[in-house]
Amino acid sequence: MTELTLAFNSIAPMISGVVLTGAFGFLGGVFLARQRMSHCTSSPAAAIADLEAEILRLKHEHKLDDLQDQILGEFFGPADLTTALAALVQRVRPPSLSGFACFVGTNSDDGYPTIASGLSKQTTGQLTIPLEYINRLRVENPLVIPRTVDPETLFELLSEADRGKTDQLVLTGINQGGKILGVLVTSSCWPAELSLADPLTFMRMIAGQLADRWHQKLAAEHQLAELRSTREMLEIREIIDSRVDEPVEAFSQFATRLGEMTGADRVAIYFIARRAGERLQPIVQCGDPLPPSVAAAWTRHEQALAHVAIESQLGSLQDRDWLKSLQRESPITSAASAPIQVNGRVLGALCLTSKTPGYSLESRRRLIDFGANTLAHTLRRVFDEAAIRRQARHDHLTDLVNRRSFDAYLEAEVERIQHDESNACSLILADLDHFKSINDRFGHQAGDKVLRETARLMGEQVSQLRAGETSVVARYGGEEFAILLPNVGLAGAMRIAEGIRTAIASKTIRIQKEMFRITMSLGVAVCPLHADSVESLIAVADKCLYRAKASGRNRVCRPQESMMAQVVTADWPIA
Q1: Buried-state track 534-572, b at ≥16 Cβ within 10 A, e below 16
Q2: What pLDDT, in 10s, does the model give residues 546-572?
Q3: Is 0.70 surpassed by the pTM of this model?
């Protein structure tokens, strides 16, 4: 026993030189070895040899454990799976100048690109794993494929330069219950730190560990993506909500930020044109400036994308091949579009486009759809608020501006003239002739019909005679109407007033199976020609209306030359 003790002590420096992750495991192994030696009947030299072998085995196992922990730690360290795979590829790449490694996904639904180190872009873009090798990896993993065995299938997917780097390819499948999640392709076995008699065993063990925790990584990545997506949604919603009173500016900020979040080069918001036959109108177009050589084609293709979204009422993704199907060479390589719907009605479309080769907007599909829904929600709010404001400003019977709003328009226009911001404005006051007799004879519903028809005719005449100009037609009270004509002098106002009188006098209205005509009397006044304030302008126009009534009705009157000096300063009562 003394000789054994001396022998053990002679190799103690070897024991102390072992770096262990779990010291107790190692010491326990040595203790067991020593116990076995105490019962051994062989010579001391054989016992020492056995002990040395045991120590080497333990050192080797712990070195493997360290390498395994290192590789798995590098894989599970990054938050997202793509970065983790890139780290894994770098870790298993052979250290020689010609060494290479890459990860090739086998499930297109996952959307993970080929990640390579030491391979050309050509190989990275075209490398796929043939189905026969995927099936073999389910039962034999890893696979070492010499060039002589596979001269045409897998090696042919390498570029000419890459084929010259190795005489074999080593495939390690990430196999989870028979499903190959992806394949590591290397130019030799790994890891390079170990001179293993059977490196495939270690590679198989690492691949199994990766497969076991793959979905944990995916779940963590999905959770992070959900958090990021929620944050982005809240941000773009805040952009819209904070500027709802200025929708165009809000839409512009929204589109700019959405483009930054999704990586799109350009974002556009299209609305359906009001007039039939017109193209879609871009309300917002933002992103990278377009050179003149591609700007027109880019806009045409954006409109084509918007039409697809509007007609299908569905969001969609398109690539360059789809755009080529339109018989047009497109500068756009990837695009996404989504309809903007309010209360079941499609009003426009959101379009995102990119010119970056290989880039896809697929991963941002959810955010893009949310963006379109946010635009729709905002438009609904804008329309609702506009409807409320319109109801407050308009007469519910005729849909013309009401008196309160008209007075505000008139006051603002006269103030512009007083500050030399405008040359003139004309006011027309009009009144239906013998309207009371219609109510008395046919009832108030018939009177309402006459008022609505009169309002329609007046609006049509003003629009035709003042195309493209800002004019205000109002129901001023009862059967009385008012028209404000900015930047119109006396001659123009008389022409418009006479056009209205003629249109109404020539219109036949049917009430209770009876046909009859109505007429209208009108008075015209101009600021500053006839008056220089709101009150005096109304007084002059009303005086002219009274004179038209007194002169036989169905006529237009303007201030008489003999009374103009008095009119300007007099306080004329409103009849």
Answers
A1: bebbbbbbbbbbbbbbeeeebbbbbbeeeeeeebbeeeb
A2: 999 999 999 999 998 644 434 433 333
A3: no
